[in-house]
Every structure is written in C-alpha cells, then in structure tokens.
Amino acid sequence: MHPVGRLEQSEPFHSWVLMRVIGIFGASGFGREVLPLVRQEHRVEIEQGHLKLVFVDDNATGAFNGHSVVSFEQFLAIPASSRAMTIAVASSSARRAIAATCQASGVSIIEVKAENVVILDSVEIGEGSILTAFVCLTSNIRIGKHFQANLFSYVGHDCQIGDFVTFAPKVCCNGNIVIEDDVYVGTGAKIKQGTPDKPVVLGKGCVIGMGAVVTKSVAPGMTVIGNPARPMNV
C-alpha cells in the first residue's frame, strides 16, 4: 500500500491484460475520495484481474494511492474490451465538457454510490451521479444527470434538482426546493424548506457559499453568502 498522495511510477500499458477499465476523471482530492468507493463496488472484478482502475487527468502524471494517472488519450489507448468513467470534478462546466468528450469517444458513464447511502422512496436520479458516504435522499425526489453529493449531504422530500449540480459536504436541502442546472452549494449550507405552491428556487448557475442559510429563492448566476444568505458584494 502506498501512503495517501504519494506519487509513483506509472505502469507500462503493454503489461495490462484487461477485460474492462474504469477511469476516475480527476486525480485531485475528490477523485482520491471517490476511488475507494469505486474500488469497493468492483472489488471482485479487480481481485480476479478482470478490471483495472486508473485516474484520468491531463494535468497530472505518475500514480496516486496505488493507481496510475493517465491522460484521456492514454486512457483510450489502454487495451480493454470496454471503458467507463466517473467524473470526480466539482466544476459543472468542466463536468459537462468531460461528459461530452466521453460520449463522443464511446466511453460509458458509471454511477458511484457509497454502501451506506440512504435512498428511501420514489427517488429518480440521472446518469453519472456520485453519492458519497452518509448521503440521504428521502422521498419523491427527481435529480438530473451528473449530480454530486459529498459527505453527509441530505435532500428532503419533493425536491427537483437539475443537471450537473454539486453539493459539498453537509448540505441540507429541505423539502419543496427546486435547484436548476449547474448550481454549486458549499459546505454546510442550509436551504429553507419551501411549500408545494411556492418552492424555494436556486436559479441556474448560482453559487451558495459555505455555511450560508438560504431563506428565499436565489436568482440565476448569483452568489450568496451568510445567514441569512445575501448577494456577495463584488
């Protein structure tokens, strides 16, 4: 076992005899947090030598946590019968671009879910989600593509969440909330519960700052901070 963050020499591609390869796009902190979730989910295939895990990152080389870091071009060149990817990148715009590149290259997208995630009733989630440890999704929830929910985040009843939305750790998204595409919600933020006839709406591309308490709807593209949350002065 290699210590966390240690950089080692990459393995030569020609030595890999594979059936499948899964890439974790992003070798930074979040990617290394997602790695053990993927490894656990596919443990049997890995132990049998039928699956290889690699990091995919065009801005890093070597290896982290015992797994090689390759560029996307190198990932496509690995001899394998099939290729899949999870995109462990917080930026919604970057995730969109990477997802489009994967689709164009014939790389499938996988979902990642920690074993202790709680999903109760009538929850729909689009492709490419990453649900880390202790995430809870309750009931009557619709979530779009490439949703990321980090440690201890919560989504309450009757919420609608768009595509490429990102929750940092410990986000509390209470009931009757609409979150449009590309929204980023910072660590520890809390969003007040709406009502069926008047949900709290987080507009497309808005940013909710760390620890913010959102008590009313937020306009598209706006950044809010504080308790209660107010527009950030630029």
Are there runs of 5+ residues with pLDDT below 50, and where? 1-16
- Strand percentage lies at 25-35%
Q: Helicity level, as a percent range?
A: 10-25%
Structural class: alpha/beta
Number of strands: 23
CATH evolutionary superfamily of the largest domain: Hexapeptide repeat proteins
Per CATH, what is the topology of the largest domain? UDP N-Acetylglucosamine Acyltransferase, domain 1
Distance between the first and last residues' Cα? 46 Å
Q: Give a quick account of the main beta sheet: strands, pairing sense, barrel closure.
A: 9 strands, parallel
- What is the CATH first-level class name of the largest domain? Mainly Beta
Shape: elongated
The ordered string of helix (H) and strand (E) elements is: EHHEEEHEHEEEEEEEEEEEEEEEEEE
**Radius of gyration in whole Å, from Cα?**
19 Å
User: Number of helical segments?
Assistant: 4
Mean pLDDT: 92
Label the CATH architecture of the largest domain: 3 Solenoid
Q: What's the domain count?
A: 2
Key terms:
9-stranded parallel beta sheet, UDP N-Acetylglucosamine Acyltransferase, domain 1, 8-stranded mixed beta sheet, 234 residues, disordered N terminus, 4 helices, alpha/beta, Rossmann fold, 16% helix
